[in-house]
Automatic annotation (TrEMBL):
Annotated InterPro entries: Asp-Met_ligase
Organism per entry: Desmophyllum pertusum
This protein's name: ATP-grasp domain-containing protein
PANTHER family in UniProt: CULTURE SPECIFIC PROTEIN, PUTATIVE (AFU_ORTHOLOGUE AFUA_2G00130)-RELATED
Highest taxon above the source species: Eukaryota
Length: 146
C-alpha cells in the first residue's frame, strides 16, 4: 500500500492473500473495489444490529438462483445466524454465473457451519473471506482463494 501511495495512487484496493500452514502469500492486488470491500463496510453495522460479530464473505457458483435463495431463506429462519446476498450475476434465465453472499454468526465455528451447509446444498465455492469483529477490531478480512 505504501508503494502505491508513494507512486500517486489513491483509491480502493482489494488485496487477496492465501494463508495456509506454510505462511502468507500475496495472490492479487486489485485497484478497485472487491466483494471484500462491501464486507468491510457492512460487517460492523450488521454485527452491531444483529449481534452477529463473525462474518464470512463467499463467492459461489450456485446450482440455481432459486435453490440458493431457498437455502438462504431456510438459514435465515434459524437463530444461529443470517445470510445476506451482496451481489449476483446470471447468464440468462435461471443459469447462474456467480453470487456473493455473507454469512453472519456469533462465532467462527457457527459461521463456518452455516457456510458449509449453504455450499453443500446449492453451490461451489470460488473464494471466501472472514471478518471477526470480536477479535479484529480493524475489520481485517483474510481472503483464501481456492
Amino acid at each position: 500500500m505504501k508503494y502505491l501511495h508513494k507512486n500517486g495512487y489513491f483509491g480502493f484496493t482489494g488485496v487477496e492473500i492465501l494463508i495456509n500452514n506454510r505462511g502468507k502469500f500475496l495472490i492479487d492486488v486489485n485497484l478497485k473495489t472487491s466483494d471484500s470491500t462491501y464486507l468491510l463496510l457492512l460487517a460492523p453495522h450488521v454485527a452491531a444490529f444483529l449481534d452477529f460479530p463473525v462474518s464470512i464473505v463467499v463467492d459461489i457458483l450456485p446450482t440455481s438462483i432459486a435453490q440458493l435463495l431457498e437455502e438462504i431463506d431456510k438459514l435465515n429462519c434459524e437463530e444461529e445466524g443470517r445470510v445476506v446476498v451482496l451481489s449476483g450475476d446470471e447468464w440468462c434465465g435461471d443459469k447462474p454465473m456467480k453470487a456473493c453472499v455473507v454469512v453472519y454468526a456469533k462465532d467462527a465455528q457457527t459461521a463456518f457451519l452455516l457456510h458449509g451447509r449453504l455450499l453443500n446444498s446449492c453451490g461451489t465455492m470460488i473464494c471466501n473471506g472472514v471478518c471477526d469483529e470480536n477479535k479484529n477490531t480493524n475489520g481485517t478480512v483474510l481472503l483464501n482463494k481456492t
